[in-house]
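Batch 3, record 17
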Amino acid sequence: MNAEQVLAQPDATGEVGLVVHRDFVCTEPFVFDNGRELDGFTLRYETYGRLNSTRTNAILICHALSGDHHCAGVHSMRDRKPGWWNNLIGPGKPVDTNRFFVVCSNCLGGCQGSTGPSSVNPATGQPFNLDFPLVTIRDMVRAQRRLVDHLGLPELYAVIGGSMGGMQVLQWGIEYPGFARRLLPMATTARQGSQAIAFNEVGRQAIMQDPDWKQGNYLPGEGPRVGLAIARMMAHITYLSDKGMDRKFGRRRREANPGGPPFDIDFEVESYLRYQGQSFINRFDANTYLYFTRALDYFDLADAYGSLEEAVERVDSRVLAVGFTSDWLFPPEQNREIALALLRRWKDASYAEIRLDLGHDSFLVEAPELDRLVRGFLES
Amino acid sequence: MNAEQVLAQPDATGEVGLVVHRDFVCTEPFVFDNGRELDGFTLRYETYGRLNSTRTNAILICHALSGDHHCAGVHSMRDRKPGWWNNLIGPGKPVDTNRFFVVCSNCLGGCQGSTGPSSVNPATGQPFNLDFPLVTIRDMVRAQRRLVDHLGLPELYAVIGGSMGGMQVLQWGIEYPGFARRLLPMATTARQGSQAIAFNEVGRQAIMQDPDWKQGNYLPGEGPRVGLAIARMMAHITYLSDKGMDRKFGRRRREANPGGPPFDIDFEVESYLRYQGQSFINRFDANTYLYFTRALDYFDLADAYGSLEEAVERVDSRVLAVGFTSDWLFPPEQNREIALALLRRWKDASYAEIRLDLGHDSFLVEAPELDRLVRGFLES
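Prediction for the assembled complex:
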């Protein structure tokens, strides 16, 4: 076991505790699905817990569109923002870091340390920007496989992820049959539908029509902040639900602002959305947003393999697909369909539907039913 | 009967035929809900069919956010675009212009000939822009009442409308009890919910953050075309449904464009949305979009009258509320709730739910079940 694998230890509070990221620098050439090649790439990642002596307790976590490698614990005493799945991952939690060695990497094409459009192209000394190769979900998974090999993992105990992360989970099962013993895709789809493509297109248009986008050639630290914020505000609505928003915000007003400009913020929900937009532009790269939404749009297992049944034919893992009743971005049916296709090919698959009214983001919230499901699936 | 009332006559094809609009210029002062006053206003309107001798066969049609006064027939041999509800309104159609005298006006605050933010303020000789008073649904209805009085209509046989038009229908019933004998609100709500406000806010932000918006002071013919197109593209998705879009567009691709710019149109649904955005900016004023979306957001009958039951207490009309199963902008429940509140106050109300998978826009499409429902309600 090397040093990086024991870095993240539970602290006294029962949390993963302070974690630091590591960079995996792959110097082998990497050929993208579209035929383009890079001499190598970097994946930034974090690990939590200890690898066991047989190296068989590793769980890979795959992140969604706006996520990153920081899925559990906190980075430093100054940056106390916990990882995005901290409620699910940690000592004694459903993904129990006392028992499992958990790995999560920023996806290829990302902007949080992994190689992506904002990275410097060694050939030019300038950021790749739109010269970065188009990235697919399968590219992300094949890059993750190199990291997994680098960590010396002969197999994965499980691969877990929601939304775009769930697509990666499915692709792992198809690309490397049997390598992961368990697959746990949530709030996802085997095939991006028309409505989801449409929302992504509006977001991309908001970014690309912003004069500061400059055909993708904005300088580091600059870029289409207005367009990216609008894309994020709109997308954020699709992550919630009508009922959830009515419960959380309803028609509550902020303090009246009679002297203020017309059409300024009035309802709480407007203030919340603007905050979501503004905080996003400080942590996310607009070009990565274009690349990742296209990766989502092009994800269609049935088209790639002839049919969904043929796609899952190679899967040799136990699969639990999880849908959420109020998720209208990747509705329950689309998750159930994954399990049904597997069952039609006599695979070990099941489907669970969780009744939560928080929309697509339900997979990210603390919910006893989801906790029990994940814990049970990992113990099985 | 005056000349304007007989202008639109059925032609040989069974359509309303060529129609021309009229301008009703009201020279009486008008006090808006927010206390601001204008010396008068203009409403542009169309009529179809003939007023009967007792003047009791008039039906008022109320339009939605992006609609206008041109709801049936065609304007000229050169402009063959039929009215937006031409499938429902015409000789022998459910709103039968052989039998009814149909009136439809562009709402106060609009941009298709009625007084709105793009109209010239007589006091300054410049467009009102954001100096136009904030418009409410009730303001729209009270302006329409002046037109109805001008036309010499002692009562209305019915008031019909969907979406924002449905809100006006409800407000007509409350504001002028018994004046309309029948109210037919469709695909609407008595209270704009949090999600609908959120989508409107993103649209407004897209407009207001466009540098060409210029704090609302763009010149006539100019304006935030990019922002307005993005607002429209996004809103258009909310008018459709997941299933409807999958059936209409699925994941169909346009011709491959390998030499084209990256992230250009690839899927049919993207092309459709961009067309919707582009055609909208040529016919709609961005400031009116701000005003109308705010009118929607502020519509809350329960808040305005204490409760929904108290709001509908004054209604003295037969009411049929119609919801559409796939409408997720103003879901069926919100339409059923209107009828239930009326029934709790022993009003003559019913609710019909139509199974169509075209989303919010279902009320605009030709559907035998809706036709029968409207015809039956008007014959009752």
